[in-house]
């Protein structure tokens, strides 16, 4: 079996998943929609972006690479496939209102049954042809998919049948990612923190929704072997789109006790963009102590050490300092690093604080390189302290 985690004194580090699509690719997607270029020309632009992403990722010396989700419209809509104009998908309710005032909606299923028509695993297959280096893959959470059908179901297609289809599809996608060669797979759970935000414009949210989400994710994890489950992570964040967030005002003290009810092998927790990253480590450490006595022990936690909504570069020294301080609360053997979020969860993303998607792409790779170097520095320091 592929080695899932580094051994010895190294600290694991990995990206969340997405990277800004080059301006040329964003343009090509819009041109393909209006018929100005062919689907073959669009596929060539996507392939070029994936090749460039994997090359630049390798240059950061990141131990795990991702394809940056260059072929995806968004982190959430890919299971619906690319033919969104056949009447099977309608515009759904508001998903999130971001701090800058813009919003995103949830695609909604116009008729049942729900079947996966696009697989994250296909991106692993395509990337595997381009690199021998270890890959990670992000998949959409069953909780996000659960918002695509109303509580009363769709005609004869009941809500219960729909959720069964969501759970089995999501578990199948994860198994396919591993079969295609992914070393680790993470479930995007951006709607976790958002669920606790009081906002009447997002009617799906609330503490009850959060409990239902956690139950659904645990159902998916329950369909996987315990061996695979150790390599499945869950990502929490306050969102990232157009360099803005959707739920930074929700206190982690409310979310984390619920989040750690998820039986994942590890967690990717946004922290660098918080006012006090050290407080996040402290709150996480408290939850890990509670989990330690349970079967399977405490999960690993990769803390976010770079902030994708802000173009200011974190230095390797800052990354290292954050991790070394975090190790006061989180045992070093459970600690690692990641980015606070995907660098561009949606394909069309102007990255206004960065000035352009292309510059944001350069910044993202510089941040990833700093994360990789800083994590190595932290491991050396923590190892020296232990010796
Ligand atoms: Zn995120």
Q: What does this protein structure show overall?
A:
With 387 residues, the chain is α/β, with parallel strands linked by helices. It has a single domain, classed as TIM Barrel (Alpha-Beta Barrel). It contains twelve helices and eight strands. It has helices spanning 23-33, 39-59, 120-128, 142-146, 159-179, 190-195, 207-222, 226-229, 252-259, 277-292, 316-326, 357-386, and strands at 89-97, 103-109, 135-140, 182-188, 232-236, 266-269, 300-304, 335-338. The protein has a six-stranded parallel β-sheet with strand order 3-4-5-6-7-8. It has a two-stranded antiparallel sheet with strand order 1-2. It is globular and about 60 Å long.
Write the layout of secondary structure elements.
Elements: H1 23-33, H2 39-59, E1 89-97, E2 103-109, H3 120-128, E3 135-140, H4 142-146, H5 159-179, E4 182-188, H6 190-195, H7 207-222, H8 226-229, E5 232-236, H9 252-259, E6 266-269, H10 277-292, E7 300-304, H11 316-326, E8 335-338, H12 357-386
Parallel strand pairs: 3-4, 4-5, 5-6, 6-7, 7-8
Antiparallel strand pairs: 1-2
Helix pairs in contact: 1-2, 3-5, 5-7, 9-10, 11-12
The protein binds zinc ion.
